Amino acid sequence: MIKKRDFLWLAFFLIILINGFEAGGYQASLLNIGKDYDLSNTSKGLFASVELFATMLAPLFLGAWADRNNKINCLKIILFIQILAASLITLINLKIVFIAGVFFLGLSTSALQFITIAALADSYPLSYNQKIGFLTSMYALGAFIAPLIVSAYLKIGLSWKTLFLLIALASFFAFLGLIKSNNYQKETVVNQDLEGETSGNFIILAIICLCIIMCIYVGFENGFAFFIDSLFAQELNSNLGKYALSLFWIIMIPARVLVGYLGKYSKIILLICIISIPTIILLITNLINPIGILLLCIPLGFASGAIYPSVLNIAMPLAGSKKATATGMITTATGIGGVCFTALTGFVGGQYNLRIAILVLAAFFLISLIALLILIRITKKLT
Are 140 and 32 within 8 A, CB to CB? Predict the structure, then answer.
């Protein structure tokens, strides 16, 4: 029989899996949505940014709220909103309803992401580092399977709206999972030294550095993921785009699990990733062979996958008791990056081409490198 605390862990995993599925599914559906609404690359970038804009609003209003209240109850409320938004998109065939629904999905997925991570840290203080690797892997797993499922149901003639029906159903099961986890027992910290690692002061400057890193990384990730299918179709005359997107996401899973077990090396891992990503993108943007670009998505996905759990491993000891506030700040930064960089990718892609657009995104990692070096200097002073 599964213990109630294990139900909670499974519910957390399902919530993040749904978030990844929604992100990967929307990215894989954008080309088809664009055809329905006759959107250019620039318009598709703005269309995609509606949801990303919402992701940066939720933490501004809900981070402190989640820290003050029971995080499990907060998650239940947000899941209800997500079910409602996804259902409206599925049932009502109006453009304005789609835009409004996607906006509220952006709010809900953003809130679910940072509150779930904070709830995990509160509920599992002893095993957080290991669990965060698996938890963030669920996002990558969801984003991996989504393009494959989208491709499958589109081939048999179903609408791209099927994605939102699946999101509503999965969110309902996550809601039930949280109800099943009532009266769960938290892990108890016996060693006070271990407790001190997660209950110190809130180091604002260090968290801001992590926000900058995540802003640029997620901006790149969204710009690349939203437009890789279009790049293959428009510039390479290839139908491998959805497979490249899935490969990009699936390889993140082992990367994130590995980081969970190498938490004490998070800063070194982060440094390697920040240098590796623009290097790989430079190779991708100079290749004309679709297979070659497809294969380069393997190291790109591995380097990309390691960034998120590394940032979270670094952030939690620096957040003190304000874990939802810290993860909320990071999520806001990812929303800003998603909005600005996705729109930028569409604009540069429309003015020039998508190769140049993706290369421009990669250039911003120089700023990430500077932020990381500042962060390392701050943390050295704390030790």
Answer: no
Q: What is the largest CA-CA distance in the chain?
A: 60
What fold is seen in the domain 4-382? Growth Hormone; Chain: A; (1.20.1250)
Q: Tell which residue, 211, 367, 376, has the closest CA to residue 274.
A: 367
Question: What is the rounded radius of gyration, in angstroms, for the C-alpha atoms of the chain?
Answer: 20
Q: Taking the model in full, what pTM does it have?
A: 0.77
Instruction: Report residue 95 as tokens.
Output: 């453009």
Q: CA 327, CA 315: separation in Å to the nearest integer?
A: 8
pLDDT tens digit string along 166-184?
999 999 999 999 988 766 6
Task: Work out the burial of residue 308: count CB atoms within 10 Å of its CB; fewer than 13 is exposed, 13-18 middle, 19 or more buried.
Answer: buried
| Tokens representing residue 204 in the block | 């604002």
Determine contact, residues 291/321, Cβ cutoff 8 Å. no
| Under 8 Å between Cβ of 13 and 134 | yes
Query: pLDDT tens across 253-312, in order?
Result: 899 888 888 878 999 999 999 999 999 999 999 998 999 999 999 999 999 999 999 998
Using 50, 70 and 90 to split pLDDT, how confident is the model at 236? confident
Task: Delimit the domains of the chain by residue range.
Answer: 4-382
What confidence tier does 193 reach under pLDDT thresholds 50, 70, 90? very low
Are 77 and 23 contacting, i.e. CB atoms less than 8 angstroms apart? no
Is the alpha carbon torsion for 104, 109, 112, 117 positive or negative?
A: negative
